[in-house]
Amino acid sequence: MKVTLERNHLLKSLSHVHRVVERRNTYPILANVLFKASEDRVELRATDLDIEVTEAVPAMVSTPGTTTVPAHTLYEIVRKLSDGAEVRLETDGGENMVLTSGRSRFNLACLSPDSFPDLKSGSFGHEFAIAASALRELIERTQFAISNEETRYYLNGIYFHAVENSATGTVLRAVATDGHRMARAEIEAPTGAKGMPGIIVPKKTVGEVQKLLDGAEGEVKVEVSDTKIRFTVGPVVLLSKLIEGTFPDYDRVTPKNNDKQMNVDRASFATAVDRVSTIASDRGGKAVKLSAKDGLLELSVTNPDHGTASEELAVEFDTDGFEIGFNARYLLDIIGQIRSESAIFMFNDAGSPTLVKDEGETKALYVLMPMRV
Fold first, then answer.
1. Is 169 left (phi over 0), alpha (psi -120 to 50) or beta?
2. Which end of the chain is more exposed for a tag (fewer CB within 10 A), N or C?
3. Which residues form the signal peptide (predicted)?
C-alpha cells in the first residue's frame, strides 16, 4: 500500500474513528484502525465490537492495499504534524507501515487485516432521515439522565420509539431515566419512523453520535433493526449494537395529578440552588429543601458538619405552606435543560414525583423524585 493524504483530512477522519477504540483491549487487533486504500480514497474503520465507525478520506493512491495500525498512536502522530502537511503512508506487505511528512518519519507496527472484526449490519427494517439539529436536541435534552448502574443495563441508554399523540400526530420520543430523575423529549416523527419498534441506544453510542452532530447540518440517515442501529452523518457511518432488554413503563411514573403549580425564574433559581448547595455534604446526598410561603420560595441546606445556608426567591405559587426536598445536582441538571425564562414545577405532595417543564412548550418534560430533608 502506498498513499498520500492531506494531514487535515486524515486528522479529521481519525478523530472520528479512533474514539471508539478502548485504551485497553483483550485482543490486540481492537487497538488498531483498519486502512483500506483503493482508487482515490482511503477507508478508515475502527470498532470495539459494540460500535463500528467508518469514514472515507480522499487520497492519492499509488498502490492499493489494506492494513491495520495502532489507532491512538497514529492519531497522536498526525495531530502533532504541521497544519496542511502532506502525509505519505507506505507498507511493503510486511509488518510495518512507514509514515513520512516533511522531515518526520515514523515506523508503525501493523497487524494483519484478516483478523480485523466486521460488525455485520444485517438488514434494517426501518429507515428515515432526521434533521441533525432535531436529533441533537433529542439527545441533549435526555442524555444527562442515563443511568450508569450496570445491574440495570436496560437503563444504560436512551429509549427511542414512535408514539401516537392525539394532539400532534405521531412523534419520535426519546426517554432516559436512572430511577431518580427522568427526561423525555419528542419531535414530529420523520417519514419512515412511524411503526418503529422501541430501541435502547447505548450511552457510549449516544456520546459518539452527539460528537458527530456537533456543528453538523442537513439530515442524518438512521437505519434500525431489532439488534442494531446505523447513523450516517455526512461521510461518517456509525454502526452500533442496541441494548437488549425492556425499557420500563415510564408513562406509569409520569405524574398525572400534580395540581400545585409553581413558576420561578429559571436563571435566578439555578443560581440560588448552586449557591446554597455549596455547604451540602456528599454524605447527606446534597439535599436542598424548598419551602414556599406567601409568594416566596426559601431554599435551604443543613449540614451538621459545616452549618446552614438559605436564600429566598419571589415565585408564583398557588399553594402556601408547601415543603419538599431534592438532590441539588439532579435539580440543577434538570433546570439546565429548561429553555424558557420561567421554569414550571408541578407538585403533588412532598413524597411524590415532581414534574418540571418549560413555560409554554410541550416538547420536553422532566420528572424528579423527592428526598427526605
1. left
2. C
3. none
